[in-house]
Request: fold
Amino acid sequence: MDIVYRDMVTGAHQEIALQQIMSHLDSIRKDMVILEKSEFSNLRAENEKMKTELQQVKQQLIEESRKVRAEAKLDINLERSRVNDMFTEQEKKLLEVSTEFHKKV
Reply:
């Protein structure tokens, strides 16, 4: 019978063990809350950094788009002017040939 009683735990010992386990769990919960808050703060900071970078990229894209549009307009205007000059030159040549033709006839 002594062997059986040696393996048994009293209610007081069970209560003490339970309190120790609960205290340990509370400590773990507090550590988890602190870790979650820290992780959340890190994520928030990273998110803000990414927002800033995205805004900068957006501004660069807008500026590049404006430059490309301006260059395209300039190219179109230059080409239009070149075509007009070419047309004027052709009309001038046509007028000269027509005048020459009428002189010979």
Remarks:
- Residues 61 and 67 are 10 Å apart (CA to CA).
